[in-house]
Amino acid sequence: KVASCTYTGDALEPAVTLEDGDAVIPEGEYTVEYSNNTNAGVGQVTITNNDGGNYVIQESTQDFPITKATAPAAETGSLTITNGLHKTYSFDLSTLLPKLTAPCDYGTITYDKKVDTNLGVGSFITLVNGKTGELTLDANRSGTDEGQFGTITVTISTSNYQDITLTVNIFAKNKLTPVMDGKITASKI
Question: What is the rounded average pLDDT of the residues 135-155?
Answer without folding.
Answer: 89
